[in-house]
Amino acid sequence: MLLYLTNYLAQFESGFNVFNYLTMRAILGALTALVLSFVIGPRMIARLSINQVGQPVRENGPITHLPKAGTPTMGGALILTSIAISTLLWADLENHFVWIVLFVTLAFGVIGYVDDYRKLVLQDPAGISAKQKLFWQSAAASVAAIALYVTATDEMQNSLLIPYFKDLAIYLGVFQVVVTYFFIVGFSNAVNLTDGLDGLAIMPAVLVGGALGVFAYVTGNVNFSDYLGIPYVAGTGEILVFCATLAGAGLGFLWFNTYPAQVFMGDIGALALGAALGVVAVVVRQEIVLVIMGGVFVVETLSVMIQVASYKLTGKRVFRMAPLHHHYELKGWAEPKVIVRFWIITVILVLIGLASLKIR
pLDDT tens digit string along 29-43? Predict the structure, then answer.
C-alpha cells in the first residue's frame, strides 16, 4: 500500500525511490510488525484477561504446568494482526504470491480462532471436532494449492527440488497440488503440536520464517538465482516482506510469551504460523529444506504418531508423554532448558538448510 504512495512521491523527491528496494521494505515490514506487537500486546492481553479467556491445563500433564492454568491465550491474534497490517503496508499488492500466502495464513487463523473460542469462551472442551478442523484446513489448503498450480509459468514451479544436488528435481505436474496440500496442512498441525511450552514454538517459527525469506529473496532475483544455481521464480522475492513481518511479529509476541508466559498463542496462532511456513516453502520451491529447518516441528509430530501407534499396537508407550517436549520435562529437565535447547537445535537445522544454497 505504501509502495504506491512512495512511488508517487518519488516524482517530486528522488529520495523516496529507496522504498522500491525490496530489502528496505522487508526491514520496515519487520520493524512495523514488531512495534505493532509492542503497542497492541498489552491491551490485547488485558482484554483477554478481563474476558477470562484462560488456558486450561491437561490433568495428566506435568505438574509444573498447573500454575499456568488461566493464563490468557488466543494471543496468536496479536501475531496475525501485526503480520497482516505490516504486509499490506509494505508488500507489493499486485503480487499474487503475497495474496495466496496471506489467504492461507489468515484462513488457518480463522480456523484456530473458532476452535479456541469454542474451547475457552463457550467452555466446550471438544472445540472443533477433528473431522471438522481437517475439513476446513483441507478446503483452505486446496484453494491455495490449486491457485499456485494454475498460475505456475514453467515446469520448475511444479517440480520437487532435491537440495544439495545441482539441477536435480522431480517433475510432479498436477501432483504438485497434493504436495502443496500436505505441506500446508502438515506443518500447520506440526507447529500446533509443538506449541506446548512458553516460547517453544514461536522462536523456531521466527528462525525458519526468516530463513525462508532468504530463499524467497534469492529465488526471486534472476542474478542471485543464476549465481547460486537455483531455479528463478519471478515474483517470489516479494515474499521476503511477508517473512520479515512474520519474524517481526513473532519476536514481538515472544516478548510476552517468553517464560513465564503472560499469554499463549493458542490454535489461532499455531495453526496459522505452521500453514504460513508450509505455503511459503512451496512458493520458493524449498519443501524438503523446510523439513530440515523445521526439524523440531517434524520430530514433535513424529513423537505423537509413534506414541499413538505403539500404544495401540503393543499397549506400551515409547515416550513418557508426547509430544516430545513433555517427555523431557518428565525426565526432569526444567522448562526453560527444554525450550532453549530446542531453539539451539533449530538454529543448527536452519544453518544446515541455508547451506543448501551453496552446497550443490
Answer: 999 999 999 999 999
Can you name the residues that pair with 218 across neighbouring β-strands? none
CA angle at residue 336 from 331 to 340, to 5 degrees? 100
**CA-CA distances (angstroms) from residue 81 to 27, 37, 50, 75?**
18, 8, 20, 10
Strand partners, 159: 171
H or E element at residue 245:
helix 239-257
CA 113 – CA 136 distance, rounded (Å): 12
Beta strands in 154-296 (DSSP E): 159-161, 169-171
Is the whole-model pTM more than 0.90? yes
Q: What is the pLDDT of residues 167-212, one digit of tens each?
A: 889 999 999 999 999 999 999 999 999 998 999 999 999 999 999 9
Nine cell digits for residue 81: 494482526
- 156: cell is 520448475
Q: Whats the size of the chain, residue-wise?
A: 360
Q: Which residue has the cell 500486546?
A: 41
Q: Where are the domains of the chain?
A: 2-11+22-54+67-355
Q: Which residues, in sequence order, are bridge partners of residue 54? A: 72
Around Cβ 160, how many Cβ atoms within 10 Å? 15
